[in-house]
Amino acid sequence: MNKIEFYVPVDRIVEFSEAVSGYNLTNQIMGVSEDDEIIIYVEYFKNDIVSINILRQEYEHFNYDEKLESEDIDMLDLSQLN
Description:
This protein has helices at 13-22, 49-58; strands at residues 2-9, 26-32, 37-44, 63-65. The chain is of the alpha+beta class.
């Protein structure tokens, strides 16, 4: 199991939560950052890598902490999935 940490602005939490739920990913609210952003851990398996990459692209404006990742994620060229 791998984890990635997202820092989500309060006014975007519903949108982010719906996206994470839509991919059936387990997540946990960990607290609030110094900038009043909600800190969320999202857990995933290797077979969830496409969903994680999509989340990262959709929410690239969110500050996610790659240091928490258990292994490196290579960004997929999602245009090749169509």
